[in-house]
Design brief:
About 40% of the residues lie in helices and about 25% in strands. The chain is α/β, with parallel strands linked by helices. The strands form two sheets. Strands 6-7-8-3-9-10 form a six-stranded mixed beta sheet, with helices on both faces. Strands 2-1-4-5 form a four-stranded antiparallel beta sheet, covered by helices on one side. It starts with 5 loop residues before the first strand and ends with a helix. Bound molecules: adenosine-5'-diphosphate. Adenosine-5'-diphosphate binds next to strand 2 and helix 1.
Amino acid sequence: MAAAQLELWQVAKRFQGVVAVDSVSLTATAGQVTGLIGPNGSGKTTTMNMITGLYPTDAGHIRLDGVDIARLAPHRVAALGVARTFQNIRLLATETTLANVLLGAHRHQSASLLDVLLGLPAVKRSEAREKARCEALLDLVGITHLKDVAVGGLSYGDRRRVEIARALATQPRLLLLDEPAAGMNFAEKRALADLVLAIRDMGITVLLIEHDIEFVARVSDHIVVLNFGREIAAGTPEEVRRMPSVIEAYLGT
Ligand code: ADP
């Protein structure tokens, strides 16, 4: 599956008169990592929630490979190949790492309930394939050794990895990461940066919200800066870091 191109055009969202996103236009270019940064309350999460169908837009277009997805329900957006991770990790704590990742693969299991109940060989084969695919993803994110461990007992950084593996198990063409480096130590951030680049190199478009400007600069091909629900700057990491408006609004130095 080819990487997807995401285009937002003058997207807006209000909550009872509060302007969360005023007018955001941005492109997450196919096969690249796009970083979305900005101060707290600048509209990043709301933007991501509109892309995934959690919130309907009030105005503007959201296009995935040219198809308007702005008013689709979350499961329909997911079915088009959009996966996400959340700022607050959402995993089943009592289930193992592998079981959590298999949940992500579930939407690809096409067998009917009757086939499953009858335990047909084709179903068994397809389950074995899914399991092998998920195990390969555990390897990719570096947590094979935690395969049979309940997620509730894992470190924060490892839970983040499980979450990313679960998102990848849906075989996305666009992956949205909401503050993946939050709460990670220096070594974990370095490993995460390598993982994000590996995901991009697998042919998956990445849109990343992140507070850590060093992290964003390391992994992003392109950065978009929001402030007060509007795009105030965009460019390469080097360009964006030199812009006075960004320094003033975001870096505060
Ligand atoms: P960021 O992710 O950049 O911190 P958000 O998108 O979370 O920003 O929030 C943008 C603005 O919208 C903030 O002023 C926030 O309080 C407001 N907001 C976000 N979600 C809601 C909601 N569900 N109801 C009311 N206001 C909201």
